[in-house]
Design goal:
By secondary structure, this protein is an all-alpha fold. It has helices at residues 2-37, 43-68.
């Protein structure tokens, strides 16, 4: 049981460190691009993509939080 908890903590940590950082970095890059394209018709699509990345980050964090919760006693 202890090994399972340790595995969950390791997985949660890896996801936080790698996936969330990559998603956040992609969002920042898109925000920079959005500033460069101004009122171009594609700006709405870029803004939508930023919103989707924000949702994905929230979802990953929720999964990580769930992984770190102990299993209920059986």
């Amino acid at each position: 049981m202890l090994l399972l908890v340790q595995d969950r903590d390791r997985i949660a940590g890896d996801m936080t460190d790698i996936v969330v950082r990559r998603l956040f970095s992609a969002g920042l890059a898109l925000e920079t691009a959005l500033g460069l394209i101004g009122d171009h018709p594609g700006a709405g699509k870029v803004q939508d993509a930023i919103g989707e990345l924000d949702l994905a980050i929230r979802d990953v964090r929720n999964v990580v939080f769930d992984l770190r919760q102990p299993d209920p006693p059986s």
